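Hi, here's the filled form for the chain we discussed.

Project: internal
Contact: R.S.
Residues: 197
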Amino acid sequence: MNIKHKHIEEVFPYDGSQIDASWAFKEFGIYGSSIITWVGPVNITPDNLKDFADVGLEIKSNNMVNFICEFFDCQPANMRIAYLRQRLLVMIFREILFEKGIPTKREGDDIFINNRKLSISIATASLSSMKIHFAFNLEDKGTPDDVDTIGLFDIKDNENNQIFNNDNLIDLINKIVNIFILELKTIENDISKTNLL
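And the returned structure, exactly as it came back:
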């Protein structure tokens, strides 16, 4: 499966509409499976909520790294596969944090540091594709008052230095995406070389 990655330098909000089918094609002319990343605020409007459990809740933050993944390789689109890929993406991010000496806890598709919520995510499927939105806070600002949150830039090492900052953020984004794409490709390769019983 060929997956294109495009990082958008423009800052714009994620409001939930970007989870709609073929958003990457409509906005950027990108055909096929893709991962679009950008940095921007999140404020999901009620009409764009996809998770029934989130109805009535505020989902917002002033500054997050956003990932919109869309896959066309499975027809008809499969919600279970979408959620499995979502969890894989979340766990790849968590593994990278662990390599940097940052302990985390995962509850489903959410990542916590010291019981403070770092990330949000949703997976869904349309008639034609499977989609994932994954995002993590860069700062603990503009988040709901009833949720204890943390941002990636808030995390310090033992010498009180930022582990991640604007200088290494793009490298982190690319690393997450590249490992994720590689995992999906190696799964495809393993399928193709497996002798069926």
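Let me know if anything looks off before we file it.
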